[in-house]
Known about the structure:
By secondary structure, the protein is an alpha+beta fold. The protein has a domain at 1-81. Helix content is 12%, strand content 14%. Strands 2-1-3-4 form a four-stranded antiparallel sheet. The model has no long low-confidence stretch (mean pLDDT 77).
Amino acid sequence: MCKHVLNAQVSIRAPCCQQWFDCAECHAEKETHKLAKTTEMAFMCKKCKKAFRKDMTAYEESDEFCPHCDNRYVIDAKTPHAVVGVEGEDARIDSRMLKDDRVKSKNNQSVFTMDPDEEAALLDF
């Protein structure tokens, strides 16, 4: 499973070392050499597990589908990104650094603030 492209539909075969990778970044992490450029790419569909080749010089819109199962493998890639950033100690011990913006409190009261009517009632003895 690729950590760079979350919804990768095919694996590519590197023409330089003849190994299968999910993306070019995966090749760069595992190998010491650069990915060689080629005009004919070898793909492996992750849905039907069958390999196929595509000529990249004459690439058309109909070439975006697996020839065996019609799985569309050219899609908008979803790259992972951090959702919550936390700096500090363990949030289970000290949760003061966490703030949830989904629910906003309507009135911020403390034991030191009173309603003006309550304050007037206390002062009028």
